Amino acid sequence: MQSPLSSIPRDHAASRLRWDIFCAVIDNFGDIGVCWRLARQLAAEHGLAVRLWVDDLARFVQLCPQADPLADAQTVGGVDVRRWHATFDAGVEPAAVVIEAFACELPASYLVAMAGRARQPVWINLEYLSAEAWVEDCHLMTSPHPRLPLVKHFFFPGFTPRTGGLLRERDLFARRDAFLADRRASDAFWRASGFAPPPPDAVCVSLFAYRHGDVLGLLPAFAGCGRPVLCAIPDGPLLDEAARFLGRDTLRPGEEAMAGNLRVRALPFVAQPDYDALLWSCDINFVRGEDSFVRAQWAARPLVWHIYPQAQDVHLGKLDAFMTRYAEGLDGEAGAAIRRLAHAWNAGDVLDAPLAGVLVRLPALQAHASVWAARLAERPDLATRLAEFARDQLE
Ligand code: TRH
Fold it and tell me: Is 354 helix (H, G, I), strand (E, B) or coil?
């Protein structure tokens, strides 16, 4: 298929249009998770020369183990990855398109260099994902720099046509469906994680949540739900809570333990591309933040979102906005059940009844998860929209 950039004048295409993405890691993995995924896709699918500036290479390496945490410059996954030093090199030539991820504030010298370019770079602030309605009105709003002849464009990911869309690789569904069509693929995933394939009658659940997640409420709810449950927990702070629940000192990746009809498995934290296999291998996925949240939707499996907590419980409004969109077309009882569990999980409420309500409606929730993913995928993905927007700005 012809790249959307084919209409850009020859010299640009020949020298592969250069994009810079700046990522400052606030906490957790989402900032770099989103930027790394976007960078790879812009390079692989849109033929762009992408340079990713990240200030915390150690965090990046957890998502990309083949990278070198000590290298100031390295090419990984077709992307030119640079360490973003506190003292930024003023000699860096700005790219034609500049993404400031999550309002991370570009280096002052780089801004001056952008203003000094013969042709002003396209400056884009990539915002956090939200399902709230106001996003549509803010998408593509601009803000002139107070002193320099530069204009910043606000680009909002989102769930509707009037937003910037969601990150989704071109071949994602084909890879997912091939994985789901072949039982050996998920068996191989479990074996690679150090385990035998799950018992066929077990409800498999993946649990990726913030440390304040009420694991000591959730695991007993699984253990008491009357069905065999396998709960897979990637390496992280939740493993300590799980060990406490299991009456153990520790629970390390590769280890598993039983509590009644609940089997808890500790998984290694895997490279970002491999995380999808966990989501595809489970019946329900507890996810968090932004990137895992979107991946769980593409996995076309029921999900429970542990939203990034904000002051004054602002995040609960964001949760509701998503649950309202997600419940469109879902049978009322099933919609109420998944919303109730999501709220109880985010509010730290008792989970037994909300969980039971979801488990009995799993078939309806599973069917809806496929419809939801297909509906979202009818719209162009975020990387394509960004590439098209930049092309239009540059023409
Ligand atoms: O880590 P997060 O909580 O990131 C958060 C959110 O993005 C939040 O919006 C933002 O405000 C905050 O950071 C600063 O959750 P998220 O977004 O799901 O990112 C996790 C990343 O980790 C995602 O790219 C998937 C990846 N991952 C792996 O690569 N391997 C693994 O084994 C697991 C469990 C996750």
Answer: helix
Question: Which residue among 290, 294, 303, 346 is best mutated to probe the pocket of ligand 1, counting the most ligand atoms within 8 A of its Cβ?
Answer: 290
Q: Dihedral of CA 240/242/245/249: which sign?
A: negative
Q: What is the pLDDT of residues 143-154, one digit of tens each?
A: 999 999 999 999
Mean pLDDT of 382-386: 98
On the 0-12 / 13-18 / 19+ scale of CB atoms within 10 A, 336 is middle
Residue 267 gets which letter from DSSP? E
Q: State the helix-helix crossing angle for 183-192 and 172-181, rounded to 10 degrees.
A: 90
| Separation of CA 292 and ligand 1 centre (Å) | 6
Atom of ligand 1 nearest to the CA of 29: 1
Task: Give yes or no for residue 199 having a pLDDT over 80.
Answer: yes
Query: 190-197 long-range contacts, Cβ below 8 Å, gap at least 24?
Result: 190/281, 193/232, 193/253, 193/254, 193/265, 193/267, 193/268, 194/253, 194/254, 194/268, 195/254, 195/256, 195/265
- pLDDT, tens digit (0-9, with 9 covering 90-100), for 342-362: 999 999 999 999 999 999 999
- Per the CB < 8 A criterion, the answer to whether 38 and 382 are in contact is yes
With contact defined as beta carbons under 8 Å apart, do 239 and 252 qualify? Answer: yes
- pLDDT tens-digit series, residues 82-105: 999 999 998 999 999 999 999 999
Name the 3-class secondary structure at 337. helix
Place of tokens 């396209």: 122
Indicate whether this model's pTM tops 0.85.
Answer: yes
